Amino acid sequence: MLARLPGSWHGRPVSEADGKHRHEREIGAAHAVSPLELFFDLVFVFALTQVTTLLADDLTWVGMLRGFAVLAAVWWAWVAFAWLTNSITIDDDLVSRLVVLLAMGAMLVVGLAAPGAFGDTAIVFGVAYFVVRALHVLLYLYTTRGDRDVFRAVARLAPGMMIGATLIVIAGFLPPGPARVALWALALIVDFTSPLVSGTAGWKVDASHFTERHGLIIIIALGESLVALGIGATGADFTPGIVAAIALGVAVICGLWWLYFDIVSLAAERMLESVTGAARAAMARDSYSYIHFFMVWGIVLVALGLKKTLLDVDAPLKTLAVIALFGGLAMYLLAHVAFRLRNTGTINTQRLVTAVLLLALIPVAMAVPALVALSIATAVIVLLVVYETVRFRDVRHRIRFGE
Question: How far apart are CA 265 and CA 233, in angstroms?
């Protein structure tokens, strides 16, 4: 029916003005997270799963460092697109949509090659990663060319982004060894320090969109933990111990969700909205691009610990599995402490104390069966949630309901 109405759209006449302004962009204007952004994030879910696989297959200190490096590279590629889609809406523009879909394909290859990023698939990982970063830079420059301030900000940042990606490509062509590791380290240093060097002048941040997008990525990371828990249980006999471990694992993940989304995410959004200009851009960069990485890293470590726990609930966990579980929980909480410190200048004492307690419990967890270790970790997180909910119920009510 609509095909026979070339001069209308859903029954409404299309004016010449509609055609002229349909793709005009207001850089930094408020807009909701789009379906295309959520679609793009699906490949990040897969990449997180692959990082957990890399860590599980090589549970050594070297393997942990490799997993950290791969996650850092993948995270920085995602962050770059989070800033891009925060600046502009891309769904309505055909070129932008196609570039993002191409980047998705390249990012899928990055995820597929991630377990061997320091081995057999190093070249594939490096080249695909370079393509993702190049498409991002080109699309960012294309979509912001109408705003001189943002365009210049992107142009200042682009060299660092491309140098980092280029170094990872070069590293893939080197034989495994110190030279490859050194190039990876240099690439990540260049990538992560470029925003600090280029500064925040010219950037425009939509606070509600930015906080929503990063909240969704925390959900994605927690979802990956559930996937890791499910994969760990696949093929296992559903003994009472396995069932108990699954239940405890779900409780831990739910606790991590509660600690972020009950009031922290809401308070942080309002704090970001309370500042403007370069100050808002700096807060967004520090609180979300940097500090949220350590939240995600903590969640990935917890996923690894849960996966290893299910292998044999009656035997003690290996040292690095315990460090992954308890250290991952501590890392997540310490990132929360840093998040609040950056935004408000105050310290979340109870989360800091809980993180220290989790680290102190590592020797105990290594000496008991895996199920007992997981029970201890779960109890600590649940008690923290209960304590904060009861102790700060008035503050919680004001933040959530504005009363």
Answer: 31
